[in-house]
């Protein structure tokens, strides 16, 4: 009979998502048993420790603890994609604390300050618990993902079918970040001997506008890709045509409006400092994903 691994597992909620799927395979994470939690068993793939976890089904919350068969080292939290997920996220943090979880790493957003809406409330809650000495914590605030262009149907369709990118950001710059780099920072926060007890803005290495992204895609794909700058309302309607709820489409267009006025025009060395890795450039991602956008450009009428 195989000996039990003496190291306590790390729980990754959202273990099949853009960041989570990379985190469970990161070398630093793999130094510990990893439990990848997702909403349905079929989504956990072939991962040895994949289990069902549904934010909105409390009966599944105990699954990762049962799978661990003992204490967890840490929990990585990717919240439910509903508009106000803060209450249920904080409820789960308390549930996990009752099961002796000490360290929590929350994936938030560069656009969300501590105490702000949504994950900002959870951020503030973890900070408060940390100040009372009740948890070890970190909050990651990554900017917009490079992978959005290859994983969001909104972008895939228009790059592939129309050779166009749509935004409401004008010529504003964004420090697009690789999900691989976010996972590397997350792994460090989850496994480091010393608790982080702070927040990290996780920003990419170069400032690129949507037009700059279009130029890079033009080079990679060998056909002209153009950026079309929309009004806030037109962007909302375009997202809603993809089935995005009205409230969500308004939130997304509001974020793009803030970008237009410079909210993301910044960069830092967090990835290099925390993960000891050179951050990935967008062109590298575009080369790796170019098959996703292969297809004939079609004129719209």
TrEMBL record:
<protein>
    <recommendedName>
        <fullName>NAD(P)-binding domain-containing protein</fullName>
    </recommendedName>
</protein>
<dbReference type="GO" id="GO:0016491">
    <property type="term" value="F:oxidoreductase activity"/>
</dbReference>
<dbReference type="GO" id="GO:0009820">
    <property type="term" value="P:alkaloid metabolic process"/>
</dbReference>
<dbReference type="InterPro" id="IPR051604">
    <property type="entry name" value="Ergot_Alk_Oxidoreductase"/>
</dbReference>
<dbReference type="InterPro" id="IPR019901">
    <property type="entry name" value="Ergot_alkaloid_biosynthesis"/>
</dbReference>
<feature type="domain" description="NAD(P)-binding">
    <location>
        <begin position="14"/>
        <end position="193"/>
    </location>
</feature>
<dbReference type="InterPro" id="IPR036291">
    <property type="entry name" value="NAD(P)-bd_dom_sf"/>
</dbReference>
<keyword id="KW-0017">Alkaloid metabolism</keyword>
<dbReference type="InterPro" id="IPR016040">
    <property type="entry name" value="NAD(P)-bd_dom"/>
</dbReference>
<comment type="pathway">
    <text>Alkaloid biosynthesis; ergot alkaloid biosynthesis.</text>
</comment>
<dbReference type="Pfam" id="PF13460">
    <property type="entry name" value="NAD_binding_10"/>
</dbReference>
<comment type="similarity">
    <text>Belongs to the fgaFS/easG family.</text>
</comment>
<keyword id="KW-0560">Oxidoreductase</keyword>
